Every structure is written in structure tokens, then in C-alpha cells.
Amino acid sequence: MFNRLSTRCVFAVLATVSLGLVAAGLVLGELAKLHPCHLCNFQRLLYLVLAFFALCGVLLPGWRRPWCALVGLSAVGGVISAVQQSWMQYAPQQAIECGFGDPTLVERIVDWLGAQWPAMFMVTGFCTSKEWIFLGLSLANWSVLCFLALLGVAVWLGCRREIVR
Fold this sequence. Notes:
Layout: H1 7-31, H2 38-59, H3 64-90, H4 105-116, H5 118-121, E1 133-134, E2 137-138, H6 139-159
Antiparallel strand pairs: 1-2
């Protein structure tokens, strides 16, 4: 059944899901009065980058494998940052909090984006805090699972026989 989906359709689903996750995060943040940290906002950026590459795949499905590789790399970056945040939340006493000491590249990128687009990228929280838990998992834990799912779809799309419609 899934092999009948066109390449464009799968890329459209990847973009829609990724943008939907960003929108859901913004709405949840407002409703629950959550305070995003550097890693939260970096993951938000990676969801947007992933959606951009997926939209490129919708427009240029003949370049399926390069777009899948870029979507996959974005998802891997998201997995890494979400796992790092999950670890920081699990062992806050062992973690060096974001924003203290010399800023990392991720912190510099997020701070610059926060100055350009505060409603989307302004940092107001700490990476070690678990402000919202659902089914025993923090937002960072859920983000790991979402990025892994997006990665799985990108790998599947990149490896399957091509169907362009």
C-alpha cells in the first residue's frame, strides 16, 4: 500500500508533519506557558530545515535521493540535539547548562535567530528543565521519537523503487 504513494506525496507528508510539529510546539508552548531553551529552539529550526528540504522534494521529485539525504541529515541532527537535551533533563546535575560559559555554535545560531524572529526563537528557559510531561516522556523525548520517525520515512523513500507522479 505505501509503495503506491508517489514521491511527491511522501515529501509533502514529511513537510506537513514537520511544519505541524513546529506549529504544535508553538501552540503548546503558549497554552502551557513553556519556556523554550537553546536546544528546543535548535530542534525547531531543524524541523523547519527538514520541511524546506521536503518541499524541495515536492517541487523536484526527480532529485529524490539528494533530498532524502538532506531530510535524513536534518533528522539525524534533530535526534542528536533531542537526545542531548533528554540526557540533560535526565541528569541535570551532570550537565553544563546551555547559556553559561562560552556560547557554542548552536547557542550562537539560536541567539541570532532569536534576535531576528523572537516569537519563534527567543530563548527563555533552561535545557535541563522538564516543564511538560506526557505519558511519562518530556518534549525532548517526544522530539527524539518524531525525528526518528521522520528519518525512517526519509530512508525508506530514498531506498525504495522510484515512483514519480
